[in-house]
Amino acid sequence: MPLVPCRACGHKVDTSAEACPGCGATNPGRKMSRQQHDLIVLLIQLILGTALVVVGATLAWNAVGPIIKQQLIKPAPQADRE
Ligand SMILES: [Zn+2]
Question: What separation in Å is there between the alpha carbon of 28 and the centre of ligand 1?
């Protein structure tokens, strides 16, 4: 069983230990707590989600944009503004 220093107090603990015998920190063998891990996963999902939306919107604009621009440049036949 590998021993690692507790992330909170440095006490040697087993990586599979659920609580540090020295300070009582949960998952002392892990680099980060469960909450921190969840937060980082959430942030990554948020960033990836935002990136996907931006990429999707850009692709959609590239597909629809020229059509809209064409409609704006060429007014409807009956709209005679000259
Ligand atoms: Zn500890």
Answer: 6
Could you tell me which residues are beta bridge partners of residue 3? Answer: 14
Total domains in the fold of the chain: 1
Range of the domain at 38: 3-73
Q: How far is the CA of 27 from the centre of ligand 1 (A)?
A: 9
What CA–CA distances, in Å, run from 64 to 6, 50, 70, 81?
A: 56, 21, 10, 25
The per-residue pLDDT for range 16-30, each reduced to its tens digit, is 888 999 999 888 877
**Ligand 1 center to residue 78 CA distance, Å?**
79
| Residue 80 included in any domain | no
Residue 74 has pLDDT above 90, yes or no: no
Ligand 1 centroid to Cα of residue 44, in Å, is 28
pTM for the model stands at 0.45
